[in-house]
Write a structure and sequence with these properties.
Blueprint: H1 19-33, H2 39-46, H3 50-60, H4 68-78
Helix pairs in contact: 1-2
Length: 82
């Protein structure tokens, strides 16, 4: 299978060596926003930390998918339980 970038004759408007990372980042946020990927897999696809992913969600005005389990973990952490 050919890499995705080699299938297109016109490159994106970015430095050649940044194209793959930019496409992975955009794909990760698009799939997360549509509910097709959870945060963990999406941030791994994007190649960024959880904190960076959450910050970028805010910049892009993408609603965070916040589960009950995540809320319980955050609550326990805030109470000093983790």
């Amino acid at each position: 299978m050919r890499p995705i970038l080699s299938r297109y004759s016109q490159p994106i408007n970015a430095p050649r060596n940044d194209e793959e990372q930019i496409l992975k980042l955009e794909l990760a946020f698009a799939l997360y926003q549509r509910g097709m990927l959870a945060m963990g897999p999406a941030r791994r696809l994007a190649g960024i930390s959880k904190r960076e992913f959450i910050e970028e969600l805010g910049k892009r005005k993408i609603e965070r998918h916040y589960t009950i389990e995540e809320f319980k973990e955050d609550l326990a952490f805030a109470k000093g339980g983790l």
